[in-house]
Amino acid sequence: MFCFIVHGNKMDSVYLFWCLFTLSCVIAQDPTVTLPQGRIVGIRVYTTSSSLTPVEVFFGVPYAANDYSSAFTHRFAAPTRHPGWSRTFFAHKMPQRCPQLNDSESDNFSENCLFLNIWTPRRADGKSLPVMVILYSESWSRGGVTLPCQELAAEGVVVVTVAYRLHALSFFTLGSIAARGNLALLDQYLAMLWVRENIAAFGGDPSTITLLGHSAGADSILYHITSPRAIGLFQRAIVMSPRDIWQALGEDMHYNATDAEKISRDLARSLGCTSVVDLEILRCLRASPLSDILAVYSKSNWSSVMRPVPDNFLPESQYYLPNSLSVALSATKQPTIQLDLLLGTTDLEAINYRDGQYDELLKRGAAYVTEYADTIVIPKLLRIFSLDKSDAISVLSEAVRWEYWGPLSRDSQGSVLGRVEATGRAETAATWGAGGALLTARLARRVSRLFVYRYSQPGGVDLQGRQINYTGAVHGTDLVTLLGDALMLQVARRPATRDERRISSMFQKYITNFVKFGSPGPEEWRRYRAGDAHVQELRACTTDGCGAGADAGRDPAFWLQHLPRLASLFEAGYSEPLTLEKGESRLRGGVFALCAVSALLLLLLCACALVLRRECARRADLDDDSHHSHQ
């Protein structure tokens, strides 16, 4: 707005008053919040689904003191509270991202990145709204897409997204308080403290906070659930598509601080920091360019080790993760956590294009996919369940082929897409199906209420905006569905279709019901309990049909019961030849025989039904004749 004042004119004071009044009205249109740290001014946006309901947005609100201008003193250090600001903070644009590996937006990241983004649909009556804090990163090395949450907030929830450090900047550790590691979790912890203390100023209820995580963010929630320092910071939690689900199950599968420290010291030596004194190593690394640290880290396989680890090497007062996930969740004498928990996965969780493997498989021929499944996937899955050393390895492998590939395992004309999807279903079934069943059984003993779902959507869009004609939902499809049209426009560069909007509305309703009331809502969606392991199937139906996945209980039973029993038969001395003279599998013959017996029994049942029907008709005729004779 421009105001022109002509000096010497009697109307100067009138013009000046009008300009100041108009300017104050324009400024007043921007939402303003006053916190102990200072004054913040945000923006208002309108959603496509609810254009009459504005959502106030505050981008880049700092929750930690992360100014790296003074010799990078915060690099590798635990976060501390932000001291505040003296001038008005204009929260009008997305902040820079935390540095991550293989970032296509490498010119838009900064180590000064510990910010929150807040979406709030303030109620006209001033009543507080439930709060959802979202933790999201595709892995412990990559952050992934920036999440637009106005559609979700328009459902009556204050939504907060949290930026946190990853890879070496988070998990570098020297086994001491000077470089303790686990900084991603400590960043998230400080953000949760900030939300509890300040969210009321944004219209949120600090006593009704739900922590939602996707992928590595979902793994983060499992760590926070077991951390003694996070107790009471959130009342509900939603774990969507956890990435490393087996880390919570086997003591031999979790990462340990000794390995992380060894890798960290190797990283330091690779950058020329060869001192044996921890403080000297840190001084050297803090003086190193960030690009050098990322270059050295990305050329190694260190990311497979540098993850959250137990920090019981610290003084007890500094613990955040005193135990591994598997120990914390399997402890039998731990008290019940007062927490409502919703846990869910997709039915093709293994297909994640950021990993690239399945993208590569689609480019190969059917024979290559079959060989990959036989030589890589099946042995890996059997190894998870310690069945790879069984004497019945060939029979177990054949059983897996027939369970997930069926005729495709021998059909040289089968489509590449069908074989790739079958491979994804097998990996998903073993890792997230069976692993999820074991995890939920442990969680059911620890939390007050637990709800579980499996999500399926044919031809859904993933987090890269890709849409391939699978019959189920790949990794990330659930998050795109949850955030609706806003994320669809961002990743797929197109608006959501009518079917996609309807599916999104349904899924948003389940999630927001849980955030508001502690239950997803539908009566048929029962709690998951010991003795009633209910998994709600969420199959998104479109005009082209519904998801075609198997029953959610079938996969855990196959991996946790049927295969071990089959292996035990051979360990007990069963030693018949595995193949006939013509090379046909005995397992296949057994399947055919079972089918033949089932068909025969079905025919007998039909014959009995036919005889019974005729007998009933005959008796009805006799009764009718008797009735007429009496008349």
Q: How would you characterize the overall build of this protein?
A:
The protein has helices at 12-28, 150-153, 167-171, 183-198, 216-226, 257-270, 278-287, 290-298, 325-330, 357-362, 366-384, 393-404, 416-446, 477-483, 485-492, 498-517, 554-571, 586-630, and strands spanning 32-35, 38-41, 43-46, 54-62, 89-90, 115-120, 129-137, 158-162, 204-215, 236-242, 337-346, 447-456, 536-539. The chain has 631 residues and is of the alpha/beta class. The chain has 3 domains: 1-30; 37-208 and 235-334, Alpha/Beta hydrolase fold, catalytic domain (Rossmann fold, 3-Layer(aba) Sandwich); 346-481 and 521-571, no CATH class. The strands form 2 sheets. A 10-stranded mixed beta sheet has the order 3-4-6-8-7-9-10-11-12-13, with helices on both faces. Helix 5 links the parallel strand 9 (204-215) and strand 10 (236-242). The longest helix is centred in the last third of the chain and has 45 residues, at 586-630. The N and C termini lie far apart (102 Å). The model is unreliable at 1-28, 574-597 and 625-631 (pLDDT under 50).
Summarize the structure.
By secondary structure, the chain is of the alpha/beta class.
